[in-house]
Specification:
There is one protein chain. Among the domains are: 57-120, Dna Ligase, domain 1 (2-Layer Sandwich); 130-213, no CATH class; 224-322, no CATH class. Helices cover 47% and strands 8% of the residues. It has helices at 10-48, 68-77, 84-94, 112-120, 140-148, 155-163, 196-213, 216-222, 227-240, 247-259, 267-274, 310-317, 342-354, and strands at 57-62, 102-107, 130-133, 187-190, 326-329, 336-339. The longest helix is centred in the N-terminal third of the chain and has 39 residues, at 10-48. It is globular, with a radius of gyration of 30 Å.
């Protein structure tokens, strides 16, 4: 056979490869366009409904003749919204009546839907925000009592809202309706129209945002506890630490005892189990049968015993470094001494007794 192979044409091969490349380029461009559109959509949604709870109260004065565009610029300057341009488009899409001139109370990081509702409600007549100050370390019942001190609010209704399961923390165990420890101690500026449910929702959302910002899930995993257990530990720290510098070491004692394992034997859990105000714990009190009595149970109690503040949450997620497994009240100002050995503990306890600080 005298078959002869035709000469190989390099240009033909190049043309083929370039022709095959164009569909891939077009497909890649289309995918990039979709991703860009998706990113813009997500960004716009975050401007309309920003993540996290609303922040501090902001006073807005609407002057006669101001357009929605003018109002949007002021809202952006005050931090109520993050984009006056998106606000203008949102108003155009949803429609809005002319805004009455006067004073309005809004909040930083507000959703645009809420802004329009407030503006549609009309200007207030020299209305001052309702201020609720919640100290660290209160139980949910004590927080409810603070809410009940506000005009027109009820502690019982606040507790009913908390037990209803309508409002939940993202860190609450599945099936639980216990919001103990999941409301952030802070000063809240409230609207006069905020009822008990609205107040509770604000407090839980503020807590969730705070611990999310602290990266609680990553920190808890590093410490080999769940996020909810980290909150429980923070509540123990809040009730036990009397001076700021003790928070980190107390946190370390708790983690060290859990690792041994060794019962926590924390008096604050006994006081919570007793459910009544008391300045100190008697030896007989430690016999109470309760899942919160850490003299009788192994490990952590089933839930927080108080609302921890940010400093105690920080300590629970970043405990001090040390080998301590004991702490003893050693100074009248609330300062504790920390011990690793039984001998050290006995020495500090004897000192505390000489000072009249221990029984």
């Amino acid at each position: 056979m005298n078959d002869v192979m035709a000469p190989y044409d390099i240009d033909d091969d190049r043309d083929y490869r370039e022709g095959a490349r164009w569909p891939l380029i077009l497909l890649g461009g289309f995918v990039a366009l979709l991703l860009a559109v998706g990113a813009v959509f997500i960004w716009v949604q975050r401007q309309i409904n920003p993540p996290g709870a609303p922040g501090a109260a902001v006073e807005l004065r609407v002057e006669k003749g101001m357009s929605m565009g003018d109002i949007g610029k002021v809202l952006e300057e005050k931090g109520v919204i993050t984009s006056a341009t998106v606000f203008k488009l949102y108003v155009r899409m949803n429609g809005a009546d002319p805004v009455e001139a006067g004073d309005y109370t809004l909040h930083k990081n507000e959703s645009m839907g809420t802004v329009l509702k407030v503006l549609a409600g009309g200007a207030r007549s020299n209305e001052t925000p309702v201020v609720l100050t919640v100290p660290e370390g209160l139980t949910l019942k004590e927080v409810a009592a603070k809410v009940g001190e506000l005009p027109g609010r009820s502690a019982d209704k606040f507790l009913q809202a908390a037990a209803s399961g309508e409002i939940r923390s993202r860190y609450q165990p599945e099936g639980s309706t216990n919001l103990e420890g999941l409301t952030l101690p802070e000063t809240y500026f409230l609207r006069t129209t905020d009822d008990e449910t609205a107040i509770l929702r604000r407090m839980v959302e503020t807590f969730d945002k705070t611990v999310t910002d602290l990266d609680i899930e990553r920190a808890a995993a590093r410490l080999k506890v769940t996020p909810y257990q980290a909150v429980i530990i923070a509540s123990l720290i809040e009730r036990e630490a009397k001076v700021p510098e003790d928070r980190g070491p107390i946190a370390r004692v708790i983690y060290n005892r859990l690792a041994v394992p060794m019962r926590l034997q924390i008096d604050a859990t006994v006081l919570y189990a007793l459910g009544k105000p008391q300045d100190y714990v008697l030896f007989s009190d430690r016999d109470i049968n309760s899942p919160y009595n850490t003299y009788k149970i192994d490990g952590l109690p089933p839930g927080p015993i108080a609302a921890p503040g940010k400093a105690s949450l920080d300590a629970a997620l970043s405990p001090a470094t040390g080998t301590w497994i004991y702490y003893v009240l050693i100074e009248a100002n609330g300062k504790h001494a920390f011990a690793t050995t039984d001998a050290e503990f006995a020495r500090y306890l004897a000192e505390a007794r000489r000072k009249g600080l221990a029984g």
